[in-house]
Amino acid sequence: QVQLMESGGGSVQPGGSLRLTCTTSGLTTYDMYCIGWFRQAPGKEREGVATSISSDKTYYDDSVKGRFTVSRDKGKNTLYLQMNSLKPEDAAMYYCAAHLIPCRMMGGTLLDPTYWGQGTQVTVSS
DSSP assignment, residue 101? Predict the structure, then answer.
């Protein structure tokens, strides 16, 4: 069975930082999957945040470029999202999702992921 699990969410002040973790299991060949981060705020549509194709190929939505960094740990089959300079607009439920390579992209968004995690909440408030 394939399972993705997000962790690391919490409540921070504007300008603060968080590091989200996506742990994976059941992906037979971890490095053969595109793994992306998504977010959804209450009453809003889900949007793509960042995607990791490999350690050398990463993509970001314009709204987070320069502030967020995605990375992957092959040994732990784990994906990270380092979020700096957080803004109130970043508050949302954050999800990780995966699709076998080759995957389709639109901007920083991974299209039609096969597997999803359950999400971790990020709150940004004064």
Answer: S
30, HSE (Cβ side, Cα atoms, 13 Å):
16
Q: For tokens 């194709």, name the residue.
A: 53
Separation of first and last alpha carbons in the chain: 41
d(CA 60, CA 83): 12
What is the three-class DSSP state of 13? coil
Residue 38 to residue 111: CA distance in whole angstroms? 11
Residue-wise pLDDT tens digits, 69-93:
999 887 778 999 999 999 999 999 9
Q: Is the dihedral of CA 71, 46, 25, 17 positive or negative?
A: positive
Instruction: State the DSSP H helix or E strand holding residue 68, giving kind and residue range, or none if neither.
Output: strand 68-73
Rounded to whole angstroms, the Cα distance separating 110 from 43 reads 21
- How far, in Å, CA of 20 to CA of 47, rounded? 17
Other CB atoms within a 10 A radius of the CB of residue 11 amount to 12
For residue range 2-30, what is the model confidence (pLDDT) as tens digits?
899 999 999 999 999 999 999 988 877 76
DSSP secondary structure code for residue 1 in this structure: -
